[in-house]
Design goal:
30 strands; globular; binds adenosine-5'-triphosphate; 14 helices; binds magnesium ion
């Protein structure tokens, strides 16, 4: 079948859509692949849908290849299973909730751990049934706070989610590895440059959760790499504790007037001038900055949190958000300062000697105080003295103050050492394309998924969960391949293999183009034929915007027995004889 531009449901736009922040979004809309319906919600037009289906097919083939079986759950789900796992609450405002006519609470699924767990519980009861991997390619809903960049962060989007079920940890590790390999194949086939990064720093260890990030400037994820092969999402970087110091020679803490030093820089300058250190100059890293936040917990309560870190580093908002999940981070506002009058804005410091009000009391009340891994026993600090215009010097951790624990949420900087000693870190940005995660028994426990083991004993199943952003992949591929003229698809994802452009007023060009289209179609090449009565300029521009990898221009040179074959990605143009052009194109397409 040949698709004719004169009939295709498409309109290319000359103007950028007003809300387009990134090139892929701009071009997918301008090329008539998608249309916005509401923030983060898009319709797919014929060209876009073809690409989406190709991505789905690649994902499907690679999931099938590891023995996973395709199923499909509804998007509209009852509340109860999500209540049992606490996600009804924990998911917070990202969960799209609705009420049916009988008043029952429902939700639109953000992921389907609960449903898969219950389905397996329903049907399986023995270790002999395992291992099992199930997947679906399905529409997901999340009421994202900041839908962004078109398909990249939608509120409705297509995800492949799969779940593995195993009897023991070794089985889970094998299922996880199989998924990891499948994901490598998927992202290779999507022609994405990607890195696999550790995604959690938690107790489960480095391999329990990894993300696949497509390297892209406009990505929302920042990741680090070292020359020795360490790679992690910045949220997952866990800096080691600094070595403890011998503070026996450090003088007793002393409070000093530090007028006109509202910033770290002015404080350091004043300290070097008035209270110089014998061994070396004071630096910003010698100051202990205490930053306040409010944590909003899923049950709606708010509690204060103070983070103590060296003054030369900022708190990284994303690292903090990830560390306190499922609580949400809110600013510590003036109203909060009124509730905690002992906290003197700008001069907050730990240590009872200066009236510091940081740290929980025996009843767990007060301001929870967590400190950076650099704040270890024996380290010596300049920090707020809890009085306007005053700082305390030589305040020693362990001697003069303690904290409620360690919290590593300081920004990671270019050149910081990799936690595993594999060299200095470099930072880059990426788009999260996939996530593989050893869930363990959390969901199976909550929902009672147990099977009989070989000894006839009931054991809880251990699970993995694995996601690929299918609609996001369409945007990510567009983003990493487009240029200033439009889209430029890799061959295996393009809506059509070849775009034939007939130009000129006489019938010969269109006749030849149509005949070529039929010949290619018969050879299994999918063809988009521009048969419109438009100017060559309009047609060439559209071919570039639409982004088929190869186009054939049939026009002026036809009289000389040649047509022009254009490569969209490189811009290269080749004259090819009319008698061999069909074979030439077939060879390009079939590789
Ligand atoms: P992100 O950090 O980007 O919000 P996530 O950690 O919430 O992603 P998962 O819950 O692991 O994502 O979902 C699996 C995959 O689904 C992600 O790796 C991503 O590719 C895709 N995805 C997640 N949220 C969205 C969204 N709002 N729009 C499009 N794709 C998404
Ligand atoms: Mg998310």
């Amino acid at each position: 079948m040949i698709t004719r531009m004169s009939e295709l449901f498409v309109r290319t736009l000359r103007e950028d859509p007003a809300d387009a922040e990134v090139p892929s979004h701009r071009w997918l809309v301008r090329a008539g692949y998608i249309r916005r319906v509401a923030p983060g919600i898009y319709s797919w037009l014929p060209l876009g849908l073809k690409v989406l289906h190709k991505v789905e097919q690649i994902v499907r083939e690679e999931m099938d290849a590891i023995g996973a079986q395709e199923v499909r759950f509804p998007a509209l789900l009852p509340r109860e299973p999500y209540e049992a796992t606490d996600r009804w609450t924990e998911y917070g405002p990202n969960l799209l909730r609705l009420t049916d006519r009988k008043g029952a609470d429902m939700l639109l699924g953000p992921t389907h751990e609960e449903m898969f767990t219950l389905m397996v519980k329903d049907l399986y009861s023995s270790y002999k049934d395992l291992p099992l991997s199930l997947y679906q390619i399905q529409t997901k809903y999340r009421d994202e706070a900041r839908p962004r960049a078109g398909l990249l962060r939608g509120r409705e989007f297509v995800m492949k989610d799969s779940y593995s079920f195993d009897i023991d940890d070794a089985g889970l590790a094998a299922s996880y590895d199989a998924h990891r390999i499948a994901y490598q194949r998927i992202f290779d086939r999507l022609c994405l440059e990607y890195v696999i990064v550790s995604a959690t720093s938690g107790a489960m260890g480095g391999s329990a959760s990894e993300e696949f990030l497509a390297v892209a400037e406009i990505g929302e994820d920042t990741f680090v790499r070292s020359p020795g092969g360490y790679a992690a999402n910045v949220e997952a970087v866990k800096r080691p504790l600094a070595p403890e110091q011998d503070a026996s020679g450090v003088p007793a803490a002393h409070v000093e007037d530090t007028p006109d030093s509202p910033t770290i820089e002015t404080l350091v300058a004043l300290s070097n001038e008035r209270f110089p250190r014998a061994d070396r100059a004071w630096a910003a890293a010698d100051t202990l900055k205490n930053v306040l936040f409010m944590l909003k917990h899923p049950d709606g309560t708010r509690t204060p949190l103070a983070v103590g870190l060296p003054g030369d580093r900022e708190v990284d908002a994303k690292r903090l958000e990830a560390a306190v999940e499922p609580a949400e981070v809110e600013a510590f506002g003036d109203a909060d300062f009124e509730k905690y009058p002992q906290l003197v804005k700008g001069y907050i410091g730990p240590g009872a000697a200066t009236g510091g009000a940081l740290g929980l009391d025996a009843d767990g009340k007060g301001v929870r105080y967590l400190t950076d891994p650099a704040v270890v026993p024996g380290t010596r600090w300049i920090t707020g003295a809890n009085a306007p215009g005053r700082h305390v010097y030589d305040l020693v951790c362990g001697r003069d103050f303690t904290s409620d624990g360690v919290l590593d949420v300081a920004e990671i900087r270019e050149g910081d050492p990799a936690p595993d000693g594999s060299g200095p870190l470099t930072l880059a940005r990426g788009i999260e394309m996939g996530h593989i995660f050893q869930l363990g028994r959390k969901y199976a426990d909550a929902l009672g998924l147990k099977v009989l083991d070989p000894n006839g004993k009931l054991v809880t199943v251990t699970m993995g969960s694995y996601g690929v952003g299918v609609s996001r992949a369409v945007a990510a591929v567009a983003e990493t391949t487009c240029d200033d003229k439009g889209l430029a698809w890799p061959r295996n994802l393009a809506p059509f293999d070849v775009h034939i452009v007939a130009t000129g007023k006489d019938a010969a060009a269109l006749d030849f183009a149509t005949a070529l289209a039929h010949e290619l179609d018969e050879a299994g090449v999918s063809v988009l034929l521009d048969d419109r009565k438009a100017s060559p300029g309009v047609k060439f521009a559209d071919a570039e915007v639409l982004g088929m990898p190869t186009s054939v221009v049939v026009g002026r040179t036809l009289a000389d027995g040649v047509v022009e074959v254009r490569d969209r990605a490189s811009g290269e143009k080749t004259e090819v004889g009319v008698d061999v052009v069909a074979n030439h194109v077939v060879a390009l397409v079939k590789g």
